[in-house]
Amino acid sequence: MTKNELEPISPVEAKEMYLDARKHEVSKSTLDGYHYRLKHFIRWCEQKGIDNMNEMSGRKLQKFKTWRRDDGDLKPITLEGQLDALRVFIRWCESIDAVQEGLHEKFEALMSDLKKTDEQSEAILDGEEAEALIEYQRKFEYASRPHVILEILWHTEIRLGALHSLDVSDCDPEAEPLELTHQPDSGTPLKNGDEGERMIALNAEVCRVIEDWIEQNRHSVEDDYGREPLLTSRNGRMNPSSIRDTIYRVTQPCYYSECPKGRDRDTCDYADYGNYSKCPVNVSPHAIRRGSITHFLTEDVPEKVVSDRMNVRQDVLDKHYDKRDEEVKVEQRRDYINGI
Q1: Which residue ranges traverse the bilayer (predicted)?
Q2: Which of 113, 135, 169, 250 has its CA 20 to 30 A from that of 120?
Q3: Opening angle at CA 64, ends 63 and 66, nearest 5
Q4: What is the rounded distance in angstroms from the CA atom of residue 115 to the CA atom of residue 262?
């Protein structure tokens, strides 16, 4: 389609149409994330006098990328997230004849690859990715071991060691709590010792997944101390390294969607056993914890509640786990003040 065949539409109108088109597909927090990430592009268009998306080109997108990098003083991972959100938006704009076909592919070439170390230091499994992954598991791998691992980690924000420590008796499907107990003498200490012991509320859906896992797929075995672990292999309690490998495998985007780097899972070395952690676009167990915490904070769950639930001081939460953009925090504070 040539530029003359495009249908005129302003950046603001295109963004609103996009958000409206997605509002029944994703959660409110995910939709808010789209809004926050795209509003900088709208601001740039207004500053540059761009009132028609038909005018957008690879050169203009390069100028926006440079402007946003310099204007925001952003960390690489934050800039990458905002540019990726814009790429998806541009691809959607192609579908409504607002920009030239293939423009999003030009934009991909402008997005610098991040080093794995940079990405992991600030990486999170964001709400949209988590929803897509868990939705896939609920549909195609229901109550499997990888499924129950992701359900628990995402909805409880617990550490890998705490997940490893769980026994069948720690789960009560009727009362819907999950109990964490410090048991160093039988191989499952908690990071904060006795102070890490707590009850964590679960919703009915997560409880049902755990119950179905226990009834249908869990190996009926005991560990070396005669306990009945929740996560099992054929030989006993699943070890932490195997849990970690499972997380690296299932958070590879090609596992539940498509590879953002354009690789084919059938031929990709990162999809082979032993190479999962080398994938440049999956995440570590801690990134799930970080992403879950950020998600619930974005959903306006009070910081004190999140802090108690995850067993970490509030100042540590603010410094190391809360990865909301400053714009998101400002908007949430404004919404709170306006609601008083």
Answers
A1: none
A2: 135
A3: 65
A4: 17
Tokens representing residue 286 in the block = 């801690």
Radius of gyration of the chain (CA): 22
Q: How far apart are CA 109 and CA 181, in angstroms?
A: 50
Half-sphere exposure of 302 (CA within 13 A, CB side): 3
Question: Residue 321 and residue 287: Cα distance in Å, rounded?
Answer: 9
Let me know how long the chain is. Answer: 340
Cβ-count burial 89-103 (b if 16+ within 10 Å, e if not): bbbbbbeebbbbeeb
Q: What is the DSSP letter of 229?
A: B
Residues 72, 339: Cα–Cα separation, whole Å: 29
pLDDT tens, residue by residue, 124-149: 788 888 889 999 999 999 999 999 99
pTM of the model: 0.59
Regions of the chain with pLDDT less than 70: 1-4, 27, 29, 72-78, 109-122, 173, 175-176, 296-340
Nearest to 98 by CA among 17, 203, 186, 161: 17
